[in-house]
Amino acid sequence: MIIVENTEQNAGVEVSGDFHDFEALYEALHNIVGEEGEYPPYDGARLHVLAVCYDLRHAMMGDRSFKRVENGLDREKMRYLTMIASEENIYLTIQVLWPELLFVTMALNDFIKEYAGKNARHTSNSLEHAKNIWSEDIALVRMFQSQIAKAIAAVVSPSSYTRMMNMMNKHDYWTMNYTTQYLTVLNSKFINMDADERVRNLTIVAKRLTEAGKEYEEVKREVREAAENYQCSPQDIRLKVHFPEEIDW
Length: 249
What we know:
Blueprint: E1 3-6, E2 12-17, H1 19-33, H2 43-60, E3 65-70, H3 75-80, E4 88-97, H4 98-121, H5 126-133, H6 136-153, H7 158-168, H8 181-191, H9 195-211, H10 214-230
Antiparallel strand pairs: 1-2, 2-4, 3-4
Helix pairs in contact: 1-2, 1-4, 1-6, 2-4, 4-6, 4-8, 4-9, 7-9, 8-9
């Protein structure tokens, strides 16, 4: 089972699970976001979901961290089952910044709608439509989102949690044509806060992601102007934002 927990210094979350958990989530996320160019208005959002997939994949390759987790076996149970086994399982782990994770969570809402709609359009058969509703990919992604919501609830107050959930689930197709470079700005600012500031600003980050305020519009304008000057897609524009070599998670 995938577990999502706040990191010690509140920079983001630790996503953990065994190899098969990571493999299943990796495949589900890839299937939900579709092939490159399949949902053009969501190209930017798709890249941020795939960034999580990138870390999942490297964790499965042994390029990320791991931890030992008790599996419920003890000497008494092993004696009863006449078996010898480890009392711990190995869980792979990755870390994701809070602003990044909040955006990915909201983007997945949009991708799930697109994914479900795509499959429904391919058939008018009610039985096939029911299979789509019970899609394993959707179920796995929703389970991941539920763990994220649980991690948020463990960090902020109940009232702040309610506000965040309302903001993050208020609009359909919210990440369509979103200027994702703004997320880079929020990530950078969040990293440079101390642990207490990060907790206090988590609700503010959700608000800034969803309200498309003045700062967002300024970044959007700069990105569009740069794209016009360089005759390229806005998604190809990279902001000059400083990130530390190591994050104090």
